[in-house]
Write a structure and sequence with these properties.
The protein is of the alpha/beta class. It has helices at residues 17-28, 36-44, 49-56, 77-81, 103-114, 126-136, 150-163, 188-209, 235-254, 280-288, 298-309, and strands spanning 8-11, 69-72, 94-97, 118-123, 140-144, 167-172, 213-222, 261-267, 320-323.
């Protein structure tokens, strides 16, 4: 199911190769009007007839300069209820998402399932896992597993192999950490716990599932903006996530011959259950440091993951997509 949420798009340079390709995609997603210069070339590329007729019926929309393209779209959810939808972006794909019983990973699992994928999700607590499976509702299999436990990871891989036989998308999302553990308070136990899940667990999650991954598959690692910012009290957590950025670069090079893409999503401050426990004054302090003036949502992280998972990112590997409202760069 693909939904474009937009009012109007003005696109310049729509008669170039890339511009025409983009225009054609947008038109297929619901364009109501096309400028005549772009229309004559788009029609030769196979613009859907219904869209073509609609475009020709609206000659009043004019363009200046380099022939900008004016497109309008609507979100018509009632059409989806009536069963009318376009090709989903992950139709027939098999995805694995670790640590997906809440927050960003759960939102991603729900979106992947809605986009046509069969999704395997993991969680340590069976009751939370069952709740997540019920919330997603379809195209989902829950596997109780701790990403820091190699036996659990082996069992996860075996379950996926037996039930689906392959993996097209892996989102290694499971992670833990603290932002209130300054240098003098770090213990060997707390260090091993965080690194064991975030770094070691991610590495061996990918290793166990790699034999099942198809050529051209997508691996997505869950990072954080604190990996590049000095956040007091978050030293071990930030370092464990910074390690994933390094792994993504290395694995992108190692797996390039198979066409497997490896990328990182680095969320900033996201509105999750964790932030519900943050004192109001600290919450306001965090928000004031974000240029966009708000916390992000789990759905915004899910949308970023969908981009990496789909063919939309077919020419993207080794990248780090920062989703933080400008916190790390502005």
């Amino acid at each position: 199911m693909r939904v474009i949420v937009a009012g109007a798009v003005i696109m310049t340079g729509a008669t170039t190769v890339m511009g025409l390709a983009t225009a054609r995609l947008l038109a297929a997603e619901g364009a109501d009007a096309l400028p005549a210069a772009a229309w004559s070339r788009l029609s030769r590329l196979g613009l859907p007839p219904a869209r073509a007729a609609r475009a020709k019926e609206q000659p009043g929309r004019r363009c200046l300069g380099s022939q900008p393209l004016l497109l309008t779209t609507e979100v018509l959810f009632k059409l989806l209820k009536e069963g009318e939808s376009t090709m989903s972006r992950l139709d027939g794909k098999v995805a694995v998402i670790t640590g997906a019983t809440s927050g960003m990973a759960l939102a991603t699992a729900a979106l992947f399932a809605a986009e046509g994928a069969h999704v395997f999700i993991t969680g340590r607590r069976k009751e939370k896992l069952d709740e997540a499976v019920a919330a997603i509702g379809h195209n989902v299999t829950g596997v109780q597993a701790d990403s820091g436990d190699l036996d659990d990871l082996a069992r996860l891989a075996e379950t996926v192999r037996e039930e689906q036989g392959r993996v097209d998308v892996l989102f290694a999302s499971a992670g833990i950490g603290s932002v209130s553990e300054p240098l003098g308070s770090i213990t060997p136990e707390s260090f091993d716990t965080v690194v064991g899940v975030n770094f070691r667990g991610t590495l061996f999650t990918v290793q166990h599932l790699l034999p099942l991954m198809r050529d051209g598959a997508s691996i997505i690692l869950n990072g954080t903006t604190s990996a590049t910012k000095g956040i007091p009290g978050a030293g071990v957590y930030s370092a464990s996530k910074a390690a994933l950025r390094s792994l993504a670069r290395t694995w992108a090079a190692e797996l390039k011959d198979r066409g497997i893409r490896v990328n990182v999503i680095s969320p900033g401050s996201i509105e999750t259950a964790l932030f519900a426990t943050v004192p109001p004054e600290f919450r306001e302090q965090i928000i004031s440091a974000i240029p966009l003036g708000r916390l992000g949502t789990s759905q915004e992280i899910a949308a970023a993951a969908l981009f990496f998972a789909s063919s939309d990112a077919s020419f993207v590997t080794g990248a780090n997509l920062v989703v933080d409202g400008g916190f790390a760069h502005v």
